Amino acid sequence: MKVNVWNTIMQLSKERSVEPRVIIQAIEESLRVASSKFFSQKESVQVLFKPEKGELRVFAVKRATEKIKNPAEEISLAEARAIRPEIQEGETVEVDLPADTLGRIAAQAAKQVIFQKVRDAEQEKILSEFAPRIGEIVTGVVRRVEEGVIILDVNGIEVALPIRETLPTEEVRRGELIKAVIAQVLKGYQGPQIIVSRASTRFLARLLETEIPEIANGTIEIKDIVRQPGERAKVAVASHERDIDPVGACIGVKGNRILAISKELQGEKVDIISWSPDLVTYAKAALSPAKVDRLQVVSRTEKAVLAIVPPDQLSLAIGKKGINVKLASRLVGWKISIKQEDAHE
User: Fold this and answer.
1) Whose CA, among 19, 101, 158, 330, lies 20 to 30 Å from 89?
2) In this structure, are strands 177-188 and 137-146 parallel, antiparallel, or unpaired?
């Protein structure tokens, strides 16, 4: 049967960014599925499809016999001779799908499967494109807000920003540009799902890499990050070069680097501290911006320390709703308690 679908295949290929062979395979599969109504004995259906030449055949190979025992593989000698008069018992014959049936299938039944296969190929393409990019920052346009999730358009691909992964104080509007980090790429029943986040520590880490060249090139290493999204974050850094101050480099001239990051995070305060392998030094730094007079190890077994601070530093060390000391404890990995320095000590 002559068919003229090559131009359609090439157009689909261009529009959907799917290889022509994928579409051809989809058409072949759809023809096998649709022809099962005609070949009802579970025959092994073969498809000969050369769209570039306009050739299409759907057929089953059967053996001619006087007594049929297996209808899927055998055909009566009389029926076989109606196709090929000179055929003898035991020889095979190709039983073609009738042209009118084939035409109807090619025009109707195949269409649904073709587009399903094309959609599957598109989804695989999305997965292969985004899976290696986990941890990368992307910029998307807000398309709509659904229940519990914001849908962003990232270069024509829809990605999901769950409300729980946004900053508590931010309000998004349709058409607004939003930056987020790719957190997960999932293969779901309804297609691939790309989850992005603005509340994760990974997002802050990538923002730091973007804004601070010394982190991007590996001169400064981020050792630890903890966050209370939208309120405060603490980042411990270390330098691999003696003449580079990691804290100063991250903060920037007049705080320009860290202020740019804080602005992106809707005013979230970002404390940059110097990492240290020494517990006492590290814990003191972790309580920044508060100044600590002394730090005592209360229990190494329970990993508890006590920070003693001047009276004017007490509220700063604790922080609003206890956030500063909680984040410092998480950063160091030890429970930090705060005590005001006694004037008589």
Assistant:
1) 101
2) antiparallel
Please list, in sequence order, all residues whose beta carbon lies within 8 angstroms of the beta carbon of residue 126, skipping any fewer than 6 positions away. 157, 191, 192, 194
Q: Which domains does the chain have, with CATH numbers?
A: 6-129 (3.30.1480.10), 136-196 (2.40.50.140), 200-275 (3.30.300.20), 286-345 (3.30.300.20)
Residue 224, strand partner residues = 236
Residue 5 has pLDDT above 90, yes or no: no
Q: Residue 98 corresponds to which tokens in the numbers above?
A: 């009738």
Distance in angstroms (rounded) separating the CA atoms of residues 276 and 246: 12
Beta strands in 107-190 (DSSP E): 137-146, 149-154, 157-162, 177-188
* Residue partners of 282: CB distance under 8 A and separation at least 6: 236, 275, 276, 332
Q: Concatenate the DSSP letters of all residues of 98-129 into one string.
A: PHHHHHHIIIIIHHHHHHHHHHHHHHHHHHHH
Q: In this predicted structure, what is the pLDDT of residue 186? A: 87
Question: For the chain, percent helix, then strand, then coil, each to nearest 5?
Answer: 40, 30, 30
If you average pLDDT over every residue of the chain, what do you get?
89
Percentage with pLDDT > 90 across the chain: 60
Sign of the C-alpha dihedral computed for residues 264, 268, 272 and 276 taken in this order: negative
Determine whether 157 is exposed, middle or buried from the number of CB atoms within 10 Å of its CB (0-12, 13-18, 19+). Answer: middle
Q: What is the pLDDT of residue 110?
A: 57
Q: Which candidate, 67, 263, 91, places its Cα nearest to that of 167?
A: 263
Residue 328's Cβ-count burial label (10 Å; 0-12, 13-18, 19+) is buried
The tally of CA atoms less than 13 A away on the side-chain side of residue 79 is 16
| Structure tokens that stand for 102 in this block | 């084939």
Question: Model's pTM, two decimal places?
Answer: 0.69
Distance of CA 282 to the CA centre of its chain: 35
